[in-house]
Amino acid sequence: MESVAPKVTVVVPTYNERDNLPKIVELLAASEIPNLHVLVVDDNSPDGTGEVADTLAQSGPIPVGVLHRTVKDGLGRAYVAGMSRALDEGADIVIQMDADLSHPTEAIPRMAETLATTDAAVVLGSRYVAGGAVASDWPWHRKALSAWANFYVNAILRLRVKDATAGFKAWHADTLRAIDVDGVQSNGYAFQVEMNYRTVQRGMTIAEVPIRFEERTDGVSKMSLAVQIESALVPWKLRFSGDAAQPSRVRG
To answer: Where is the Glycosyltransferase 2-like domain (predicted)?
Structure first.
């Protein structure tokens, strides 16, 4: 009897990404990953992204599901909603990927393979391990801010990962259940950090594979001052929450 490939669900939160979304779905379809599904989590985009997602669900090249949310309350909340839905629908592997085309779809097969062939609980698409890179058109101050953010987070939480704020990840479904993804409260970059911290707390392995991070070409960034402030405060909140982190195992 032929074995069934694990169900891989790519969770893509959207807000005003009507131009990028069809491109992402086409790129994912071209990757030819077996049993691949896309779950679009749209926060009531005024530009009609939700309607574009519905059209893709009807006639797209791969299976597309749509979760329509009526409020826009942050990237973290959208990811939590999408990951929870993906688990409810039987996903074995959940990929989190932003809608701005900054995350290379061609890295997903390697990320999924790393999950399947190692003891990794989650695999990060990392800009800062050997072979990884940030966008060449990033100004020096943005590169410096990104490097500082990773140093800052690791200094406080001792995550020992090269790209602690990475937003491109492949998760075992069981890992998301073990870290209680529904209980994650943070947003923005702080959401990525809290997810990593919960993984480290439980003594699970974080692996990193290199990616080249690209700057968005369409649409606008959603980074707000409130998100930046939260990102600075959350590591301290986690550090002094009273939950001692267990030793982590990190592999680049």
So the answer is: 9-168
- List, in sequence order, the alpha helices (H) in the chain: 20-30, 49-59, 75-88, 108-117, 140-157, 173-178, 188-201, 225-239
Q: Which residue has the tokens 């597309």?
A: 64
Q: What is the dihedral of CA 160, 235, 150, 173, to 10 degrees?
A: 60
Closest C-alpha among 201, 196, 5, 6 to residue 96: 196
Asked if residue 136 lies in contact with residue 49, where contact means CB atoms within 8 angstroms, the answer is: no
Region 161-169 average pLDDT: 91
Mean pLDDT over 142-154 rounds to: 77
Residue-wise pLDDT tens digits, 211-251: 988 865 544 554 555 555 555 666 667 666 744 444 344 45
Asked if 116 contacts 193 with a C-beta cutoff of 8 angstroms, the reply is no
Q: How far apart are CA 5 and CA 92, in angstroms?
A: 9
Which of 94, 24, 91, 82 has the alpha carbon at shortest distance from 52?
24
**How many CB atoms lie under 10 A from the CB of residue 26?**
14
Banded model confidence at residue 131, pLDDT cuts 50, 70, 90: confident
pLDDT at 172 over 90: yes
